[in-house]
């Protein structure tokens, strides 16, 4: 995977070490020239330096696939933060799949308008919401897994599983309405096992899902467990959409251990006394009224936060209880199970879609093999053997200095932005000490290039710019 992570050493990393990833597109939103959370972005290629959205539902922001985003999120002020992955007006031709956000200091994933479909998403250890939708987002999301660290919640407010608004106003009629369709989602809150009940004192965990401010969110074939409370449908317009079937929850299990104040069941009756009757409507096959412990869901093994196995075990209510009969699920992958993962009997652990590219212990991941954790002005955070080329930018010749700590085989190669090797400057045994080579880029096009020095005990890369 591609990894965006903290610059700090293992054991010293924390939520909010850096900002996060923001993708801005030209697909419709229900706001006029909305500005991304966090405000203006210096040097942004978007027209307003942070504005997004337009008139093209098929807008293409490229491919974002097999990516880990670790320790992101930045709080400019209360309710004005950068998320792990922020998507503003991202269009339907964009490909976003196999993305893990870990220990974000705000929402793990948030969509502001747009029409992009996403799949195979992992939200791990975030402080605020796992999947948050706003400003008219109307994409499809299938196969998502959320797992909470009980000691990581939002210090400024509520930490929920799903959260969704139309545009931030309880009486909003702005169009397009926020109407995402989620299917095959497994969200596991801070109370992932019976031993974790109750979650630590002082944390701000609340609802499995908060649907409010005129949203029309749809949730199918999913399970939300481990949160203290169940569903909250917060205002008159959203309640009306639920009654009119614009907002649907079907074939979904909700487990919670507490009853909100004023409620006789896990769902919040203080704002809508009919929520329990609505949720258990015959034929919808939803499960979740009385308080119950996490063990009743029968996920295979959630004892180790850093090595979860969220597959349904034998006897789980998630097995064989999915349905894709709704026309809203046209184009989704059909499964027989609720949630993000097949039952234990259907797949060996190393066949699950989270294996090989995710990490549930990013605090101890060692990225100090010589490759910088990011390409940027700060450069690598370790003792360097490879100097910045000079001059830079250059045309067409530049000089590169490097240090060999002990006599041995060394390579120094140049790559273009696509990763294709365009030059081999050193390939052989070099003596201990300082060395200098020249690179002549005659015949190459202007652009960004990378040069990598490898040898025994070091492996370093830097960026240079050819400007003709």
Would you give an account of this structure?
- The chain has 468 residues and is an all-beta fold.
- It contains two helices and 27 strands.
- It is elongated.
- The model is unreliable at 43-47 and 370-383 (pLDDT under 50).
Low-confidence stretches: 43-47, 370-383
Q: What is the CA–CA distance across the termini?
A: 33 Å
How many strand segments?
27
Share of helical residues: under 10%
Shape: elongated
Strand content: 25-35%
- Count helical runs: 2
Q: How do the helices and strands follow one another from N- to C-terminus?
A: EEEEEEEEEEEEEEEEEHEEHEEEEEEEE
Main β sheet profile: 10 strands, parallel
Radius of gyration: 25 Å
User: What structural class should be given to the helix and strand makeup?
Assistant: mainly beta
- Average pLDDT over all residues: 91
Short description:
Strand 4 (74-77) and strand 5 form a beta hairpin. The chain has 468 residues and is mostly beta strands. The protein contains two helices and 27 strands.
């Amino acid at each position: 995977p591609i990894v965006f992570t903290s610059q700090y050493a293992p054991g010293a990393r924390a939520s909010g070490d850096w900002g996060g990833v923001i993708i801005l597109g030209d697909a419709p939103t229900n706001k006029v020239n909305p500005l991304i959370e966090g405000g203006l972005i210096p040097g942004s290629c978007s027209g307003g330096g942070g504005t997004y959205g337009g008139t093209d539902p098929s807008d293409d922001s490229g491919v974002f696939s097999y990516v880990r985003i670790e320790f992101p999120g930045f709080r400019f002020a209360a309710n004005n933060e950068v998320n792990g992955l922020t998507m503003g007006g991202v269009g339907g031709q964009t490909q976003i799949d196999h993305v893990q956000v870990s220990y974000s200091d705000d929402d793990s994933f948030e969509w502001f308008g747009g029409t992009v479909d996403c799949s195979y998403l992992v939200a791990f250890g975030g402080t605020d919401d796992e999947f948050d939708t706003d400003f008219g987002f109307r994409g499809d999301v299938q196969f998502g897994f959320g797992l909470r660290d009980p000691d990581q919640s939002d210090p400024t407010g509520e930490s929920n599983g799903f959260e969704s608004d139309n545009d931030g106003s309880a009486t909003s009629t702005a169009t397009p309405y926020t109407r995402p369709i989620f299917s095959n989602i497994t969200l596991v809150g801070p109370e992932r096992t019976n031993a974790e009940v109750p979650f630590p004192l002082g944390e701000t965990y609340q609802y499995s899902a908060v649907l409010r401010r005129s949203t029309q969110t749809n949730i199918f074939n999913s399970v939300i467990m481990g949160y203290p409370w169940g569903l909250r449908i917060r205002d008159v317009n959203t309640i009306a959409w639920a009654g009119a079937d614009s907002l649907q929850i079907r074939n979904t299990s909700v487990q919670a251990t507490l009853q909100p104040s004023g409620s006789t069941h896990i769902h919040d009756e203080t704002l809508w006394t009919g929520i329990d009757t609505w949720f258990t409507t015959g034929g919808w096959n939803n499960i979740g009224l009385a308080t119950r412990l996490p063990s009743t869901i029968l996920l295979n093994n959630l004892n180790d936060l850093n090595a979860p196995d969220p597959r349904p075990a034998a006897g789980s209510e998630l097995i064989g209880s999915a349905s894709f009969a709704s026309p809203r699920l046209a184009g989704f992958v059909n499964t027989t199970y609720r949630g993000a993962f097949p039952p234990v009997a259907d797949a060996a652990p190393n066949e699950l879609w989270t294996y090989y590219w995710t990490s549930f212990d990013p605090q101890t991941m060692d990225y100090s093999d010589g490759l910088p954790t990011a390409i940027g002005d700060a450069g690598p955070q370790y003792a360097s053997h490879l100097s910045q080329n000079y001059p830079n930018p250059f045309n067409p010749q530049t000089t590169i200095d490097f240090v060999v700590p002990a006599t041995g085989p060394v390579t120094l190669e140049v790559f273009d932005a696509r990763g294709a090797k365009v030059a081999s400057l050193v390939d052989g045994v070099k003596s201990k000490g300082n060395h200098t080579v020249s690179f002549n880029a005659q015949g190459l096009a202007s652009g960004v290039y990378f040069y990598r020095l490898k040898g025994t005990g070091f492996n370093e890369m830097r960026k240079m710019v050819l400007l003709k």
